[in-house]
Amino acid sequence: GTSSDQHIKDGTNNISRKASRGFNLIECHSLPISQLVKSLGNSINGSENDLGCQKDVYFFPIFLFPDIIGNHIVFSPLVIILVHDSRYRREDSLELNDMEASNRYNIDTTGLVCCWPSEEVLAYYCINHSDMFRAKKVLELGSGYGLAGLVIAACTDADEVVISDGNPQKNISINAETFGETKVKSMILHWDKEQASEILNTFDIIVASDCTFFKQFHESLARTVKSLLKHSATSQAIFLSPQRGDSLDKFLRIIKENGLNYELIENYDPTVWDLHKKYVAGDDRAWPNYDKEHCYPLLVRISSFCE
């Protein structure tokens, strides 16, 4: 509840903000395990107390948890905690075992490397468009740590959120108290296999970030979206992905070949767009070597109905 959130917030006073290349739309700190154990108690236990595990704590400018201090009602900011093992990994880099995992499970598992800029932008976008999720059943594909799915569960009135393709269960458990009435669960989806009948065409909204990295998964990803998206004029999939050469264009062609429609949007949020322009112009040194083609996520809105 509120006291735990305040303990975590207090613990960031002497800790630098998480250093990584990205849009930095959401305040994030890497906190020591001791601080989180003190704040959350048994919410973090077992192997997650290993010193090699790093906890990234996101603070959202949304105030959800009322508390009475003296004669005043104080609202604490929403806190989302992501847990990942950073012992053997150089940040923001792909390794051989990432490729092997992708091939083994027939999904794009690059989301497990780190929280990529596209996922942060997707989470930010979902916060600013929270109304679209009200009473909806939502799926995050290729979630990795599941930041976007966790944000939808905590910040919107979605009926149900399914976070798939990664290892998000421990992050779901740690953040469970922020979800309110929204049902949240994790699931592994093999994109190249027929999906279970009980989930076919049941999702109102599908979200994904940076899932078009591996071209060999484009066809299976498109079929997965088509098979899981509800047959409704209001149902849609929202993808955020950089251009990356011809990778995104090839995926969009496959989307059309599978009978789906899409809208490609370059400027979808004024804050993100302003940051992008500053990075391109070199006016902001926070992201050196920024490259539009590989760094700026375009928004793709996919539907099964013609406008």
Number of helices: 10
Low-confidence stretches: 1-19, 45-52, 85-102
Radius of gyration: 19 Å
The tally of structural domains comes to: 1
CATH class: Alpha Beta
Range of helix content: 25-40%
Total strand segments: 10
GO cellular component, one term: nucleus
Protein name: Calmodulin-lysine N-methyltransferase
Subcellular location: Cytoplasm; Nucleus
Keywords: Cytoplasm, Methyltransferase, Nucleus, Transferase
Walk me through the structure.
The radius of gyration is 19 Å and the shape is globular. The strands form two sheets. It has a seven-stranded mixed sheet, sandwiched between helices. The longest helix has 12 residues, at 117-128. Helix content is 30%, strand content 24%. With 307 residues, the chain is an alpha/beta fold. It starts with a helix and ends with a strand. The protein has one domain (2-303): Vaccinia Virus protein VP39 (Rossmann fold). It has helices at residues 2-10, 33-40, 96-105, 117-128, 147-155, 169-174, 218-228, 247-257, 270-281, 292-295, and strands at residues 27-31, 53-69, 72-85, 137-141, 160-164, 183-187, 205-209, 236-241, 261-265, 298-303. The protein contains ten helices and ten strands. Strand 2 (53-69) and strand 3 form a beta hairpin.
